[in-house]
Amino acid sequence: SEVDADGAQASLLASSCSISQYIPVLPTVAYSCAMSIPLDANDQIFQDPAAARRLRQQYGGTSEVDADGSAYGSVGDRPVPPPKAMRLIHANRQAEIRQREEDEEADATMREYDMGVKEDKLYMNSGEGKSAEAMRQRRTLAQRNLDARLCDTAYEYDVSGCALSECNGCYAYSTASCHGAPVYQNERGWTLHRDRPPVESTIGTDEQVSELGWLISKEGRPFYAVKTEGLVVPLGGWQCFLGPQPAPTCVTHVSWDEHFLERCGPLKDEGNAALKDGRLDRAEETYTEAIEHMDGFDDVISSSDQLRLLHIALHANRAEVWLRRSSWQAALEDCRFVLGLDAAHAKAAARLCRACRALGRSGEALEPCRLALASAGNRGEPTLREMLDETEVLAGCESGASRLSEVFGQIGSVKRSLAEWTARGRSDSGDLQEVTVQLSAALSRLGQTSADAQLARELTLLLQGTSLIEAVLSIAGMVVDLEDSEWTITLACVCVLPAIGEGVVRRIVEGLPEIVPQLVANPRQSLELVRTLLRHPSRQRLKISDSVVATRGLLASCLRPWVALLESAGTDGGEVSDGAEAASEVIQALGAQTLRLDNLEALALALFVETFIGQKLHREDGTQVVSGGFVLYHGPAVRQVVLALFRNWAEDDRILQSFSPELVGRIWLSMTTKLRRDAGVEVEKQIPGPSGKKPLKLEWFKLRRAQVLRKGAFHPEEILQALLEFLRAHLRATCARGCEEVPQEGLAPRHPAEEWLQEAIDRPFGWGVLLPLLVAPPPLSCGTLALLEEVIDCYPHQEKLAKKLAGLHAFMPLLGLPWPTGPQPASSHMQATLALSSGARGAAAKLLACAIDTEIGLRVAEDNVGCCVESACDLLANLLKSTDRPDAVTAAIECLGILTSNLECWELVPQEVITAIVAALARSSCAPTRAQLSKLLRHAHRDRTAGPRVEAALKDEAVGLDEEQHDALLREIFDVRTLAGQAKAEMLLKMRERQEQIPAPVPERSAKGGRQVYALCEAIHRIYLQHLPSPRVLILGRLARAFCSSLARAHPGCRIVLAETTLEKLAVEELGPSCEAMLLPPIPQALAEEPRLSEGGPFDLLLIGEPLGYCAVAEYAEQLRPFLRRRACDEEKKKDQVQCLCVEIQERLEAARDELFSAGYYDADHDGGLAELRPLARALEHGVALFALPSEEREQKKRLEGERAVERKVRRRQEAEVQASQAEEEEQRRSVLFGTLFDPLRAMGEVDPLSISADVGAAPGEEELLLVWLPGNSETPGSSRDLLAALCTEAGIGTGCEGCPGGPRLRAVEVALPEEQSHWHRWTDEQAVSYGAQWFEMAGGVTQEDEDKAAKDPATNISFTKPNLEVLQGLEGLEVSCRRLLRLLEELVAGLRPSARLALGGFAQGGAAALYAALGGLASAEVRSRLCGVVLCCSGVPALHFLGPRLQDACLRSRQVADSGGGEQARPVSVHMIYGRDDTEVKDNFVQTSHDLLKRFHLPVPLYRFRGGTSEDRFPEDVRGAVLTKVVRALLS
To answer: From 998's CA, which of 3, 61, 668, 1031 has a CA 20 to 30 Å away?
Structure first.
């Protein structure tokens, strides 16, 4: 450590005692570093001048004088150190001498120590043995000398905190012992051991005593020790023995578990990784290193489960390495070692079996394997069970006790021959072929005994246990160059017998890539092998088909030879050869069993090419053609394959989407070739092709019905039917796939249906085969119609498709026309097809509707109108009979509508068809179908010949429509959404309105309606009129005449008044003698003057029948209320419950109820008579409602309340008029004040100037700044004199202006309030602040450009509101004060010298008055030119939004002058705002708002804030002087 110059000697002497005890142990460098000055400092000085400089800097010397006054000198060119350094050097040399003497004394003392160490027990630094066995023995011997178990100790200890650095560190176990405990050593030779040294106090005496303890020593000298009897190193309590202080403070240990896991665990992981990568040498090296490191520590390993498992895993894994390197005996030893420690180790038992098999001693592995399998953890281990079974079979074969011993011997012969043939360089394979053929024959014989399950099981185990499959694969992979090598594949086929277990088959499947060349060289044998594999019971679990397809190069080379075998079946009906049958079976099985998508796609593409395209052939003329695929072959095998492929492909969308439409389009070439060859052409027709290309051809083939086809033969009709199903499925899959990723034409991708039609049909001209199939036998025709229907539904451009189909005359057979046109049309089965199924009829309707609505279609239909209409009617009539195809019905209706509307041939449509259409409309529940049927009937109704037939069909009994259904159908047919429907609806509405305005006639008594009306009236009389002596009834409405007649018959004494809108056709004698008729006036209010209503007294009942549409029931009922009898007061609640009874059609009853409610009637349905009247009214298909009127008492009260309400309304109107007049006057006054206040042009007459209460500072005419101060409300005149004088003294001292003597530059004048005024304006500061400031700014809703522009120019982005009248009236007084102040300022300015400036200021109201005077616009030009600033002190400025427009105008004028450059720009007036932060009257938000508002108009607005104000003293004197001084200095600057 570093020692200062003054204390160097004392520090060295203080530490000399302790140093002397451990100097011998410390290195010289450590001792030297502890000193402050090096011992060779003097030598360094004379040898190196730079060293002198370093020493001088280190020990305080300077270039001038040392700390003790001495300086560096020199003898010649050799520097001499100062006296201070020399003294330290001398002290160090003396200490070195004393240390040497103490060391000699310590050595003598140590010789007297006796540590009692026995040489036969201490094996120190004995070295390691040369072999692993020697090391293991040494470790074992060392443990025998211990009194404690090694596992109870630690592997190493870490010592820290010791004064000696060499003593600290890690002490590891050293295979030595002392006094029954382990000995530990560190890298520097220090030892940690247990010993019995003598007690220091007894050394040299006759009674020397020794005690056990743990010591840290070196070279026999104990430096630190701890006294203990324990056999384990203590972690604390260490003391100094011969070593310096401090003793070790911390001792930690590493257990044996931690050591071995840290050292051997990574070695095991590294070995596992090397074993996995196949680096067997590295794996063996790491496993062996870890094992050797743990050898000899059996006690430690057995005491720890983790170490035991690690030790077992190391041996078990090394056994796997030995097995892979064919070191069978080494593997056997390691496995036995593992099983000796853990008999249940399954992997070790399995590896033991493998090693014993290779050594031919399988029997030795049986017992260990059984013991391992019998343990609880391995009972369900399938691998170990299978291994034991294999070993048992092999042991039986080795002993000759098994019936498979002969085969076992032959397998051994094959393996020996294979080894010898390989050793000979693979020449002369005769012996190998011979033994292989013998083995194949033997295995084939055993395979025929499939009924013996036990034998099959033993055979499987034998093949697995002997690794025959590996040998077979090796043979097949190495003899590929031999001409006759079929025997190699034969042996593999024999090994895949159905009885053979799954493990053997799996190994063969995994080895297929190894023998691909052999399989390609022998296609028949490879076909048989694949066939055998695909037949095996475990084919699904092993995914054999996927493995075959995924084997690179197998199908690519073998598929074509396999396909060639299909032709060997001969002609139709011939027997199928074995090769053809095998090829057919393999191809079908591959297609059915393959599961992975990529394999499916690859297999499907390969089979599609081989089936329908074939291989390229070169003609003699140099052109290329394709063979057409094996679809052109004959025989049942080809039929089975092709039909199975079509069926499998059509059921899997994944395969279909892998077929491009362009690839599918190539199928037509081979299909056309096959049809021409096998069926023959009946008719053909050429049509013009694309420009510059040869004509296209439509071909009708001689196709037969399915009933006459010979069973088992390959007929073109079958493949055509399968092809149509495949094309439909492929179209659906293409549409589900979506648009093409890379457009082939243009930039935009095509619609999937458009792409499919162009690539699969148009370009290869598949129409030439497809469309003629429309007239083929029903199965083919149905498939063609279904495909075309799918195309029509999916295709996006219907008009384009319609023109294409019409141009090919695809609609002609559907209309019964000969097709193709010409002398020899083809035979057609269309009628049989349409009669067969509704699906075919639906597809035909869609095709016909698509193609007929074209120019070609209508031209053909016009030439054959009768036949076309008849066919369309038959098709529609048949479709209307079924409800499963509403879309087809819609298409057939559209087709018939196109024909009849364009050809005007409704007269050709039979009445039966029209009736069927009407009946279908009546019963159909499909909205699109009903819409099309209605449209068709609407067109028919407009036709002169079909209209009456439509009316007849609507009334036909076969249709069975009642009147309501008839009206509903008419409404639907003439839908108001169409023009015809609107016209028809208007006509029906007018008819209904006219019908409703005509009174209903009096019904005959014997008629059904008459009896029902009489029953209703009789019940009304019985319930409401019978108890009255001479009741009086008023009846009105459309049913009034019927009700009047029936009520008169029911109650002859009843006085009835019939109120009618017309008396036309009214026979009074029909009504009865007690009935009186009256004509309702057109104006309901005229009823009050009708004498017949009031002459006979009030009416007991008002009876209304069907009023809606007949009369204004609400108006008439309201006027009739005074003529109806009602109860006198509200207490008579059960008297006169019903005053009005209304009968109306049920649908309009609620509307009638609302009309009467609006007339002031109340609901009375709670009356008990309603229950009896409702069924009688329902018999008339009407509803009934009861109403009551309020009592006379309530009516009178309501009338009085109405009169009062009218009075209140009049009074409110008058008050509103007065308020409006006052508001108008106020608004006028407000506008006048707003326009005239602070207007400099408005003349107010001559005003007197304000008086001056104080004038201090510079003399008049000598000031540079004139400050006019306005006191606040509560301040007395002259109270600010002292403050202003202080300001003039503190802020105005200077040199004066140029040409003037030095002195005050500030003159301050205090203005006094007029004698008649006590304030500048009417508000206090708090009240002035409460009025706030109101303005508008641009906000959201505009463009970002407008907002940015407004933010850059805030002066224009604002508009102010007009203050209210109260504020403006208050500002009137302020204006007078400002004018008088400005009058004074004009007088003062007249006396100023030219360069002097003017500033206004004030406290509270005075500051507000100063601001308005300065910026309100009243100041004269001379005052404005001198004005430089305004000072606001705690002022609440009232109505800033009044002052805002003036500031805005001044700002914009100043900017305009500056932009135009027309004159000198006016200097802005600075506004100095002084406000307290704790002001109780002027809040912070008002201060900040005012500050921001003034700054918008480019005014300098410095803000000064202070603290310390109170409610009594808002602007303390101690603050005033300091702040105002800053302001005045700013104004002066």
So the answer is: 1031
CA distance linking residue 608 with residue 642, whole number of Å = 10
Q: What percent of the chain has pLDDT over 70?
A: 82
Q: Tell me if residue 884 falls in helix, strand or coil.
A: coil
Bridge partners, 700 (sequence order): 683
Question: How far, in Å, CA of 733 to CA of 756, rounded?
Answer: 10
The per-residue pLDDT for range 1040-1094, each reduced to its tens digit, is 888 888 888 888 888 999 888 888 878 766 677 788 888 888 888 888 888 888 8
Give the separation between CA 456 and CA 447, rounded to whole angstroms.
Answer: 8
The radius of gyration of the chain from alpha carbons, rounded to an integer in Å, stands at 62
Which structure tokens are listed for 1349?
Answer: 């522009």
Under 8 Å between Cβ of 757 and 727: no
d(CA 512, CA 729): 35
Which uninterrupted H or E stretch holds 145? none
Cα-Cα-Cα-Cα torsion 526, 530, 536, 542, nearest 10 degrees, comes to 120
* Residues contacting residue 586 through CB under 8 Å, at least 6 positions apart: 527, 530, 531, 534, 562
Helix axes 366-374, 328-341, angle to 10 degrees: 40
Residue type, 156: E
Q: What is the DSSP string of 911-933?
A: HHHHHHHHHHHHH---HHHHHHH
The contacts of residue 793 (CB under 8 Å, 6+ apart) are 846
Instruction: Report the C-alpha gap between 821 and 808 in whole angstroms.
Output: 11
Counting Cα atoms < 13 Å in the Cβ hemisphere of 257 gives 9
Handedness of CA 620, 626, 629, 634 (dihedral sign): negative
- Of 768, 756, 748, 751, nearest to 727 by C-alpha is 756
Question: What's the first-to-final CA gap in the chain, in angstroms?
Answer: 64
Rounded to an integer, what distance in angstroms lies between the CA atom of residue 332 and that of residue 335?
A: 5
Contacts of residue 330, defined as CB under 8 A and 6 or more positions apart, other chains included, come to 319, 322
Q: Residue 733: what pLDDT?
A: 93
Parallel, antiparallel or unpaired: strands 1470-1476 and 221-227: unpaired
Report residue 688 as tokens.
């013009």
Decide the pairing of beta strands 1055-1060 and 1032-1037: parallel
Per residue in 88-136, pLDDT (tens digit) is: 666 777 777 887 777 776 665 555 444 433 333 333 333 444 577 888 8
Instruction: Locate all alpha helices (DSSP H) within 635-685, ordered by sequence.
Output: 636-650, 653-658, 661-665, 667-678
Task: Give the global pTM.
Answer: 0.51
Kindly give the residue spans of alpha helices, DSSP state H, lying in 666-776: 667-678, 716-737, 752-757, 767-770
DSSP state of 1109: T
Q: Is 178 helix (H, G, I), strand (E, B) or coil?
A: strand
Amino acid at 154: A
Residue 1478 CA to its chain's centroid (Å): 55
63-67, 973-977, 989-993, 1138-1142: which range is least confident on average? 63-67
Of the listed ranges 23-27, 313-317, 575-579, 709-713, the least confidently predicted one is 23-27
